[in-house]
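Morning!

As promised:
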Amino acid sequence: MTSEKNAQIGQAREAFQMLYQVSQLLNTGLDAETLTICIQLCELGVNPDKLALVIKEIRKMGEHATQSKAKTLQL
Amino acid sequence: MDNANNIPALLNKLCEELTLKQDAIKPAEAYELALSYMTSINEQHSIPDEKILCQKIHSRLSSVSGRDADKFNELFAKLKNTFVLKQPVSVLSLLLALSEAPQTTNSTQQLFPVPNLSIINSAAAFTGASSSKSTVGSSWGVNTPKQQNSNPSISTNNSNLVIATQSCNHANEPACVRDAVLAATGVKARSSCNWSRPVQILYSRIAHLGFLHDKLKDFIDPASVFTPQGLMVEGLVAAIREELTEYYRSVALLQSQVCESDGGGGTLRRVSVWAQDPLHRLHWLATIVHSVQHKRGGELATCVHRYVHHGDERVSALARRLLTSLTYPLLLMLTRWLLHGEIDDPYHEFFIESRNGVPIDRMWHDKYRVREWMVPSFMCREQAAQILATGKSVVFMREACADLPDHCDTTPDHAIHLQSLLAAHTRTGGTNTEVAWWEAEGLREGVETAHLMASQRLLAALTTHHHLLDHLAAHRRYLLLSQGDFVHHLMTLLQDELSKPATSLYVHNLTCTLEAAVRATNAQYEPQHVLSRLHVNLYPNCDGREDSGWDVFALQYRVDGPLGTLFPATCAARYRALFTQLWRVKRIEYALHDAWRDHTILQKRLKAMPEVWGLMRRVSCLRAEALRLCGALQDASCEGAEPAWVELLSAASEGHHLDRLLQLHHNALDRHSIHAMIHHSTQELQSYLGNVLNETLALRSFETTLHTGINTELERRERYEALKAERAARNEFAITGPDEAQDKEKRKIFIQFLASRKADLNVWARSYRGHVTTLILKLALHQEVSLQTLAFRLDYSDFYKRGDAKLHEPLTYQHKRLSEMGLHLAKTRLLDHTKRK
């Protein structure tokens, strides 16, 4: 039982490593943690396009915020 | 609803993760945003097709780099085998959506049109094959993504057709395809006789790959006799080996695709479409290899460089890659030569050749040489000469000047330049994105600065430590007789000594005289390193003639050490010839002046001898004529060479490179030789000038005999007068009969002597004028303008012209000048005329 589970975990880890490599190849900018969450979400049947949109939006928000901050600092 | 519960929690976690890095926004805000997006339109999305997604990702990657695309293929294949993920496609599509490629428009172009095939089986195979195709294309093709794309899209249309038409051949197709793939690597197939004709044609096309492959393999085979030895050939072989490795990889991929999709997937036609690109590549590789056979070094580079100018971009890039690889040893050799002056060229491939057995004093001129045929075509001739001069300077500094380059602790500019070239090469490994070293701007710049630095250092060392300019000036002063006081004094001291026969002269006596002359004149202020090199030498003729001292005497300026290589023996010989000629003219002038002195002394005693007045006057006139000619010759020789010397000295002070200085020095010597008429272009003039000079010398000996004759007559008369006076004092008869008769007899003899001298003088004058006229005519007809002006100066008052009809010829300088003046006059008149109108 445990060995089977171990094998499954190993397989999962391997699969994750591959996906992580693909993610790096594609230059997505996701770190390992975020990618894990994303994979989990996808596994749960979340629409990947929407998820991508969300991540992009959050990033954009962050950029805007930092830019405005920098502007206020300059002023 | 475990899932539904988990999603918000995970989303929250995701938001936290994302906002961790950016502290500007709160996780709560992000979470709200995420929720609003997630819940906004809750329509069911269509899960994209795995194949299409896969191809999208692939094309995206391959647009950046082929290796990434291959890696992705591998990963994807593995991913498919693990069954942990339930939704691999959606994860991938997420990743794709997040991927940040700069050009997103390109990826749509690379998208393969989805084939709507009736045979589903082959559709899968097709995607496999076409993906392999694009793998091959991306790793093999260079910069032409569009071309790669066009081929597969054609192949899709074709493949439908092939599958439709070749269904009859379906049975033996896989075997045939396998054979074809084997044939592509040069492995012999079993038999092809029972195939249909179209299949045979396709097969033969693919099999041609095998032939080309074998040819290349022969070339890179180290045991092959066709490959000449050499480092640059090794470079070429390495590059070709790399190309072949790529080719093997692509063939292996193809083979795996073909075997995988067994059951009709890989058709022969698809393989043949795949073969298009490798065929082109291998064909050109084979052409290049064929053309470089039996070539080495620079020739090889030139040969490959020719293909760089090929119109086809693929061929050009291929040749570029090969050339970069094969010229790497050349770059190493070049850098070593420029920086250290060393040639490490075991296979004689470098375009600079070092010759063995050249003595150190011939080093500058003879030791190194450019092998013209080895200069690669991307280097111009001037560049090769510069490179030669640079390395030569470095070697010269080290060998001849014994100057170690270590004393400057900072790395010179050119070293940085060249090292950056080297570094660029080793860093990029010769990829085609960067500019190769042989066409980089840095090469030219590096070579130029290296040349400049090396030549300036050399020149500085030569002028400061080795007194190059002092020696040049000394050559001119003492060997070309421009130090007037010294030359005159030396001539006075040597006058008697040199009139003796050559066999009774000794160098040590003459050396003492030379030292006396130096001490007595301004030459004593010369620095010691100049004076210690000034010597006397005798150059006896070997033909057994009875030479006088004048013929064999010569001053010599001995240069040794590093300068000895710059003033080699040929140069010394030229100086000697010039000295001999100038010394001769000087000596004749001196002799004539001597004659004038005798003449003036004699003149005072001639009051009682009116019968010689006429002759003396005539001799005096002729001597003045001859003197003027000598003066004009010397003036011309000084003035003619003056500009060349000025140029030389200014170039030396401006720090031009040594080769330029040597050339200017050579020019100056040439000018001197032309004006002394011992240049090879003035050989005819030399003999005429020799005639004139000989005649002038004859005048001197004529005067000597005349003066002795007159002197003996004078003394006889004085004795006679004294006798008369003595007798008168003793109150005897002053004159006796026999005395008077004897006196009369003597006078008669003297008159006869004078008459014969007069006749001699007339003969002499005629022949002298004849020679001078010929000389002037020849000078006027010479192509050298300064000699034409010399002719004009020798006869500025038209004295000789009036005496000789030949000088009226229209080719003379005067005539030309006149006619030019006439032309000019006519032009101005014409202009005036038109103006008036």
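The two ends of chain A are 64 Å apart (CA to CA).

Hope this helps with the figure draft.
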